[in-house]
Amino acid sequence: MQQLTIGKLAELTGVSADTLRYYEKMKLLVAASRTKAGYRLYAPDAVRVVRFIRGAKELSFTLDEIRQLLTLKTSDTSTCAQILKHTEAKLKEAEIRIRELKEIKKVLQTLAAQCPADDTSVDCCPILDHISKKVTL
């Protein structure tokens, strides 16, 4: 298969050309070469790399973490245990975020229950009052 233009790679992966350029800037993706006019050309394998990045992003891995995973993925000496270590760290982050979201839900439910849901002026809105009081500098 011949090299892919950025437009073709974007089409095959569902990722915008701007995003692909950003991935290249962040050293997640490498253009195999450039045309005489300076257009990027990617190896066919770039499709798998971009799909990997998208899959990792769906699991909330940061671009830095994805770069680490890509490095491990392409290393001859990497092990599943190393990948598991990254996964377990991400799992702990997810558990913390779940606890935070449950607390947010509880506060929002309480505030919603306090709302008169009528023509009361927003100056007396318990929701806005709570939000205003939470701002700290």
Care to describe what's here?
By secondary structure, the protein is mainly alpha-helical. A 3-stranded antiparallel sheet has the order 1-3-2. The chain starts with a strand and ends with a helix. The protein is built from 6 helices and 3 strands. Strand 2 and strand 3 (40-42) form a beta hairpin.
Q: Helix coverage percent of residues?
A: 55-70%
For the record, give the distance between the C-alpha atoms at the N and C termini, rounded to a whole number: 57 Å
- Low-confidence segments, given as residue ranges, are none
Overall average residue pLDDT: 93
- List the helices and strands in order: EHHEEHHHH
Oligomerization status of the protein chains:
single chain
Q: Which outline best applies?
A: elongated
Layout of strands and helices, then pairs:
Layout: E1 4-5, H1 6-13, H2 17-25, E2 33-34, E3 40-42, H3 46-58, H4 63-74, H5 80-114, H6 126-134
Antiparallel strand pairs: 1-3, 2-3
Which features does this protein show?
63% helix, 137 residues, 5% strand, 3 strands, mainly alpha, three-stranded antiparallel β-sheet
